[in-house]
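Design request, tokens follow.
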């Protein structure tokens, strides 16, 4: 009597099931990372400002993200009377969808992390390894502007529309520099696959940050502007536009935009770690056996800390300075880096030629910036008391004795004296 054979899942079915499960895990991990990035940012900025930060909700304040989520869930969802209702409701969800989709090709490990069998490869720690991974990231990230523009336009508010238009111009201006900063890495790697780029760094025995220091710097600046983080957060400048494109959003809809911003921060940090710092590796292609994503997480955490550091340190620049930096500084340097890298590849020069060139350009740029800042600062004479210099914000007062008593008289500064002389 013949026995019926047990049905077995094909390799394609394993691949589909693994892709669905890995997508769900990645989405859950990104949402959790977003929640705790808000807490970490508040604690780190509080440390910068000599404050304590949130530490009352749960042990060490670890339940603060849960409290914030519950607060946002119970806040009133306001819809302006002049809003285009359907687009107004869809725009925040579109921003989150684009932010999550861009992470699909980011590898946390190699294809053979769990083994070389087809089933083990199907469960490799990345959602997809497409041969045009870098091009996929550029194309998906360019769609992020639609969520912001549609949200600002559909609000029926002039401030929201101005913030949306700022965001559109800003993203278009800096996406060009991002694409050109990737070109040098792609030339040395010879592939557009994210996994392939990490493999090439291991085979070459060096991270591409050493080959493309100028490209990494250009990507870092452009990516910061791309995700609308300080000092490039012009689309939501509260001093000028109330809250920009976020003016009419409240509750969970507002939280969705914040979620998209933080997920985009994680994505651009992951791309930087993958393209320039070897991704999940640290000297070998396997990374830490069984835990390939440890090195990846450490590298991404460093970049996320830099995002927070910049927000706590630098003031928001003017909009004309933003456009000038993108078109007159980053774009020419990106083209120059591309030409030099192409020459190194075409003539077979050693890799360090490109690295030295990038380092020299960065040093020259730093010197020029410091000289311009020093020349722009007016020469001031420090006021001292008993040999101790006082801050420029301190204004001295002196008392003039009269028959009726002493009156406080403000000592005129050089600027006010000059103004009086000109007026007279």
């Amino acid at each position: 009597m013949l026995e019926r054979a047990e049905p077995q899942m094909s390799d394609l079915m394993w691949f589909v099931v693994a892709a669905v499960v890995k997508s769900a895990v990645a989405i859950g991990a990104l949402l959790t990372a977003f929640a705790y990035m808000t807490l970490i940012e508040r604690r780190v900025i509080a440390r910068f400002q000599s404050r304590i930060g949130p530490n009352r909700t749960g042990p060490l304040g670890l339940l603060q993200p849960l409290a914030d989520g519950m607060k946002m869930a119970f806040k009133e969802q306001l819809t302006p009377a002049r809003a285009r209702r359907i687009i107004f409701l869809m725009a925040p969800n579109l921003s989150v969808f684009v932010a999550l989709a861009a992470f699909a090709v980011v590898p946390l490990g190699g294809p053979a992390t769990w083994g070389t069998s087809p089933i083990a490869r199907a469960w490799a720690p990345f959602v997809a390894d497409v041969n045009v991974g870098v091009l996929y990231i550029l194309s998906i990230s360019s769609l992020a502007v639609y969520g912001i523009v549609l949200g600002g336009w559909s609000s029926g508010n002039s401030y929201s529309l101005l913030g949306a238009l700022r965001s559109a111009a800003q993203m278009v201006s800096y996406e060009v520099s991002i694409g050109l900063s990737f070109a040098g890495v792609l030339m040395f790697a010879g592939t557009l696959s994210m996994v392939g780029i990490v493999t090439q760094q291991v085979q070459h025995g060096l991270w591409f940050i050493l080959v493309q220091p100028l490209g990494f710097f250009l990507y870092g600046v452009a990516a910061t502007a791309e995700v609308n983080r300080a000092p490039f957060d012009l689309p939501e400048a509260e001093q000028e536009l109330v809250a920009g494109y976020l003016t009419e959003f409240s509750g969970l809809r507002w939280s969705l935009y914040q979620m998209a911003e933080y997920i985009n921060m994680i994505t651009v940090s992951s791309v930087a770690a993958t393209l320039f710092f070897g991704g999940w590796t640290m000297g070998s292609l396997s990374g830490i056996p069984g835990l390939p994503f440890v090195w990846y997480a450490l590298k991404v955490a460093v970049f996320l800390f830099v995002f927070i550091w910049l927000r706590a340190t630098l003031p928001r620049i003017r909009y004309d300075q933003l456009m000038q930096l993108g078109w007159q500084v980053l774009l020419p340097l990106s083209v120059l880096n591309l030409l030099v890298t192409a020459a190194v590849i075409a003539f077979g020069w050693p890799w360090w030629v490109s690295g030295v060139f990038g380092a020299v350009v960065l040093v020259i740029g730093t010197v020029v910036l410091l000289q311009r800042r020093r020349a722009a600062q007016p020469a001031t004479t420090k006021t001292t008391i008993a040999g101790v210099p006082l801050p420029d914000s301190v204004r001295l007062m002196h008392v003039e004795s009269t028959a009726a008593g002493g009156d406080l008289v403000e000592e005129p500064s050089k600027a006010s004296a000059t103004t009086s002389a000109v007026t007279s």
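Comment from the thread starter after seeing the answer: thanks! The chain has a mean pLDDT of 85.
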